[in-house]
Amino acid sequence: MFVDRVQLRLLAGKGGDGVAAFRREKFLPKGGPFGGDGGDGGSITFRASPHPFSLEAFRNLRTIAAKNGQHGGANHRTGKRGENLSFDVPLGTLIKDMATGETLFDFTEKEQFFIACKGGKGGKGNAHFKSPTNRTPREFTLGTKGETKEVILELKMIADIGLVGLPNAGKSTLITSLTPTSAKVGAYPFTTLKPNLGLLTFESGVKKFIADIPGIIRGAHQNKGLGHAFLRHVERTRVLIFVLDLFSPTLLDDFTTLQEELMAYNPELLKKPSLLFLNKIDLPGADQLVTPFLEKHPNLSPILVSAKEKIGLQEAITSLETLFSSQDIVCEENKEASILPG
Predict the structure, then answer these.
(1) Confidence at residue 260, expressed as pLDDT on a 0 to 100 scale
(2) 274: closest CA among 337, 315, 324?
(3) Which helix (H) or strand (E) holds 120?
(4) pTM score of the predicted model
(5) Alpha-carbon dihedral 297, 298, 301, 302, rounded to 10 degrees
(6) Which of the chain's termini has less CB crowding within 10 Å, N or C?
């Protein structure tokens, strides 16, 4: 199951209390204070890993609680520390404060870690309070409480290419034709209920990750259809491919619809480099549908493809490779290859 958003209550462990104790051994009638410190409470840490594909491991969790530190003991014995809890999350995961919506941490690189909840400090035993004027101190301190937070874990996949289109435009078929990925394909809307991921290899040997984003509909920015559940995954792609169904009854308006939804959700998305694919060119009558589209959108240069019959895919791949080459030259910060969870 693909899970990309979970809510969690995090409880770090409480620090153990220090104790007041005195050394009482034979031949040591004035042994003095000998109380040990409490152990620190356990902390809760998250670490970025390329292995988990989604947040499925947290699907049935509501509360994560680390163990408390143990109290100190006599003879300077320090209480046992509470065990720290560490969890792997996919690259692209954000940790947000549930109350304020503030992003506490953004995992964009492997092995990054974030202490989401710090455990409480153990209290001090009375041995810490001895002095020349206070030889029998009975003071000790209690352990402090660990942090408590309510957070949201939200996954925004990191990919090089994002396929964007209305339902049943052929995005899943396209990704299975371009990459060695098996995706569910069906002749009905919303066949894809989770992002599909694939690895496209150019002739030069350069590899780029593709994310097939489930179908966007009018009103998706208002959370209609699959809405925000998958629009967030478009945000981290470097290049967008708009995929249109040539035989859509609303073909002339489909491209505008997609642009309007992306603009309403996040205007920065339309600043990304993009290509336009007109799909299903293999079907009878396709040529007659291209002309009206070009007349309405004279500034567009679509690539005609058939994802099913693999027509025009070589031209599409070449155009993608050229686009990435130009972007890598212009954008210095984009020279590093993207890393995709999974």
Answers:
(1) 86
(2) 324
(3) none
(4) 0.71
(5) 30
(6) N
